Amino acid sequence: MIIGYVRVSTIEQNEARQIKALEEYGAEKLFVDKQSGITLNRTEFKKMMDFVREGDTVVTESFSRISRSTSDLLKTVETLTEKNVEFVSLKESVDTSTPQGKFVLTIFAALSQLEREQILQRQREGIEIAKAAGKYTGRKPIQYDKKLFGKLYKSWKNGEMTAVAFMKKVDLKPGTFYRRVKDYEAEHGISSDDKQEK
């Protein structure tokens, strides 16, 4: 089955042009979203992804109808490929059932990876410059009430409180919580063997 996907950003925008192009291509079923393309968390898009089956073809007017993000577009095509579903974008003349279409998407994937690596490199360079200028201090330590922590620690050790309840009281996530427990025990000479993790 040929399945068409249509998206416009607002309710006011008219989807008729996209629908006509997809029907002319041969789309037998349409999914229409009136939402932003920033996220893949769209009602009709998710319905379409659940609906498609092996041998189907998803056709859309352009890449931007699926997503404004190259990485999300590639993720979508990868999911369709895993289901043995072909993908066609009319504007870019891409059809994954052809070698040319597969090649174009390979180039897109390489460019997306290059973009990610360049962003990370710029971040690392920025940190190094900030360190050299004495402006980079890293993440600030999470503040917590040490007196309250000590009281709750005793209740926890005595089996009067679970670790989950303890974490909620001091507003700490598990990783940070257990690091604080370790620090507290080291500071007070307490053996960690007796620690209760409930």
Note the main attributes of this structure.
198 residues; alpha/beta; Rossmann fold; five-stranded mixed sheet; 8 helices; 5 strands; 53% helix
Overall description:
- The protein is of the alpha/beta class and 198 residues long.
- The chain has two domains: 2-96, Resolvase, N-terminal catalytic domain (Rossmann fold), CATH 3.40.50.1390; 146-194.
- The chain has eight helices and five strands; from the N terminus they run E-H-E-H-E-H-H-E-E-H-H-H-H.
- It has helices at residues 16-25, 43-51, 63-66, 70-82, 99-132, 146-157, 163-170, 174-187, and strands at 2-8, 29-34, 57-60, 86-89, 94-95.
- A five-stranded mixed β-sheet has the order 2-1-3-4-5, sandwiched between helices.
- The longest helix has 34 residues, at 99-132.
- The two termini are 52 Å apart.
- The model has no long low-confidence stretch (mean pLDDT 85).
